[in-house]
Each structure stands twice: as C-alpha cells, then as structure tokens.
Design a protein that fits this description.
40% helix, 245 residues, globular, single chain, binds guanosine-5'-triphosphate, 9 strands, binds magnesium ion
Length: 245
C-alpha cells in the first residue's frame, strides 16, 4: 500500500427510507467538517422510497456538486457500498448509515484521528468507555458481545467492535481489496480483510441509538451469516484478498 496523507474525505451514505435522518446527517457533518469533506456519495437502490428520493433532490438543490447521487446496480447494502468505493476520489472515505444509528457528531474526531494516522482505519466501537447501545435487546447485546470476543481471538486483534460499520478508510484499501459479500456481512468483511493484509485499525468510542424512522433491512437470523465470512477470511490467502490487476 502506497504512503498517503489525509487530504479530503468522501462520506458514503446508503439510503433506503431515510428523510429527516439523512438531512440531519448531512447538515451535522457540514456544520463541523465542511473544509474536509470533498463530497457525499449517496447510493440509492430500486427500492429506495419516493420520500427518500425527494429528500435527496432537495439536498442536491441546496448543496449542488457536494452531493453525488449514485443508483446501484448490484443488490443490497454490500452492492451499494462496493459501487460507492469505486467512485471515491478523495484520499479517505467514511462508511456510515443515513438512519442516525451512526452518530454524525463523531465525524470530526474520525477525521482528526485519520489525519494523525492516515494509513490506518479508524473505526467506532460501542464496547469501550464512552460508547454504548440504546434500545438494543438483551439477547442481541449478548450475541454481539460473544461474537466480538470470538472473532477478536480468532483474528488476534484488540478491536472490540468489528460489526459496527462506522469507519474511515484510506481510499487505496477500498480499491485494492477483492470484496465479495453483498448483504450485511459485507460490513464485517470491510474490517477483517484489511486486518488480514496487515492494515492497522484503531478505535474511538461511539453511541448507537436505534433509528426513529423507517426500518432496518437486516433481520436477526441473517446475523448468523457473519460467521461464514468471518471463518472464511481468517484462512484465506492474502493473494485472494487482494485484487489482481
Ligand atoms: N442504497 C442502499 N442502502 C441500503 C441498503 N440496505 C440498507 N441500506 C441503508 O444502509 C444503512 C444501514 O442499514 P440498516 O438496514 O439500517 O441496517 P443496520 O443498521 O446495519 O442493521 P441493524 O442493526 O440490524 O438495524 C441505512 O441507512 C439503510 O437505509 C441497500 O440495499 N441499498
Ligand atoms: Mg440501521
């Protein structure tokens, strides 16, 4: 991986049914980090609601070329993210949600840490002091905790939250990894594949709050699919993790 320094960031926002949550996300980020944000890459699917699309039109009317709208061709959240990765031209990119479950107020800190450690991934954890969960069921909390412990041992890493997909990446990582998942396990793939090729990641604490509009595209049972990619990537050769070109 070539040496890079922090120059600017693209914020990737996948959208299905968010309206005021999306606007709040964009506005809060611009309030504190306008100087550093090159653009927002908003990705929509065929199933994105009319209300969400109108909200995006209004954002484009207000912010012009700061908003890039992309209609995904590949399916699901992984497809949305993977197509967005190809569009990033900034030195770094933030992966987050538009439903306010990824607190936009953390963006300035993510950027500050990335400036300090531009080669590393900076990722948000709900499992250290200063972070946490609100309205997360006990059974989900327990399953999440066990999952984190198992995979931090398996990957021999100190990371405490590998499934909260709120992170800033140096762009070359996004472009050089051979991504494979399309559904939610993709979010886990974005940390384990970089770890396997020797990229370092550091954590900052963050608070997860349940969305107040729309609903999640994930189902509880689907969470078990995270094990499959987790085990597969652990024993995958580095050549297979990287794109050959
Ligand atoms: N463009 C696009 N956006 C998506 C897709 N699936 C989910 N999203 C968006 O990605 C963000 C995260 O997805 P959610 O479905 O809320 O899932 P989650 O919060 O990771 O999962 P839970 O913790 O189970 O709720 C939200 O802003 C969604 O609107 C998709 O297929 N295409
Ligand atoms: Mg969500």
């Amino acid at each position: 991986m070539t040496t890079i320094s922090f120059k600017s960031v693209s914020v990737i926002l996948p959208v299905m049914n968010e309206t005021y949550s999306l606007v709040e996300t964009v506005d809060q980020i611009l309030r504190h980090s306008k100087e550093d944000v090159r653009n927002f890459i908003i990705v929509v699917a065929e199933k994105t609601t009319q209300e969400a699309l109108s909200t995006i039109d209004a954002l484009i009317a207000r912010h012009g070329s700061l908003i890039i709208l992309h209609r995904q061709k590949m399916p699901f959240i992984g497809g949305a993210m993977r197509e967005a990765f190809e569009l990033v031209e900034s030195s770094h990119a933030i992966m987050m949600a538009s439903d306010l479950e990824t607190d936009p107020n953390l963006v300035p800190l993510l950027i500050a840490k990335s400036r300090e450690f531009p080669q590393k991934i900076v990722t948000v954890t709900r499992w250290i002091k200063g972070g946490g969960f609100q309205d997360y069921s006990n059974i989900k909390l327990l399953a999440n905790w066990i999952f984190q412990k198992m995979f931090s041992l398996l990957y021999w890493t100190k990371l405490t939250d590998m499934t909260y997909a709120y992170r800033i990446f140096p762009t070359p990582i996004l472009k050089s990894v051979n991504w494979q998942e399309l559904r939610h396990p993709f979010l886990f793939e974005t940390i384990i594949k970089p770890l396997r090729i020797g990229i370092e990641a550091i954590e900052i604490p963050g608070f997860w709050r349940a969305r107040t509009e729309g609903e999640s595209q994930n189902t509880f049972l689907r969470n078990f699919e995270y094990f499959k990619i987790g085990l597969k990537v652990r024993f995958m050769s580095k050549n297979k993790i990287l794109k050959i070109d």
